């Protein structure tokens, strides 16, 4: 590392992007499957599920923020793993603490979207309130 410290401004962001599967993500499939020993098909399935989960998690964070729920604990975990990847190397293993939070946030995102879609619908009156014909 001492011999290559001048390359840090270039490689640190790439390490972070790789950890978040935003840089050479398909190459991460191979790395995770073989070098991490996770198997090819489980790694592919995780890869396909990751992006929708991440997007819904962002929606969940926004929903929490709009409801004035503190999101700093979630952001602190993400910042910690990001700093770790930037200072060492960007493998998805470092993202594991965040991967545990993503389903929770995604569930909040799904509920937020569902609530927004159903809140403005005009519902039919109950059958007891209908006039007799």
Listing every helix as H and every strand as E from the N terminus to the C terminus, the arrangement reads: HHHHH
- Mean pLDDT figure: 85
Helical stretch count?
5
The N- to C-terminal Cα distance equals 84 Å
Query: What composes the largest sheet?
Result: none
How would you describe what is shown here?
Helix content is 68%, strand content 0%. The relative contact order is 0.13. The termini are far apart. The chain has helices spanning 8-19, 25-35, 40-66, 72-87, 96-119. Helix 1 packs across helix 4 (72-87). The longest helix is centred in the middle third of the chain and has 27 residues, at 40-66. It has five helices and no strands. It is mainly α and 133 residues long. The model has no long low-confidence stretch (mean pLDDT 85). The radius of gyration is 21 Å and the shape is elongated.
């Amino acid at each position: 590392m001492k011999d290559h410290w001048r390359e840090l401004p270039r490689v640190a962001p790439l390490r972070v992007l790789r950890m978040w599967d935003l840089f050479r993500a398909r190459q991460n499939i191979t790395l995770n499957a073989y070098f991490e020993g996770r198997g090819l098909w489980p790694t592919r399935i995780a890869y396909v599920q990751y992006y929708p989960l991440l997007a819904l998690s962002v929606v969940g964070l926004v929903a929490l923020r709009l409801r004035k729920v503190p999101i700093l604990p979630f952001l602190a975990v993400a910042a910690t793993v990001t700093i770790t990847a930037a200072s060492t190397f960007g493998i998805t293993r470092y993202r594991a603490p965040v991967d545990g939070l993503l389903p929770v946030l995604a569930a909040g995102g799904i509920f937020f979207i569902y609530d927004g879609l159903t809140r403005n619908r005009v519902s039919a009156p109950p059958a007891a309130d209908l006039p007799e014909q």
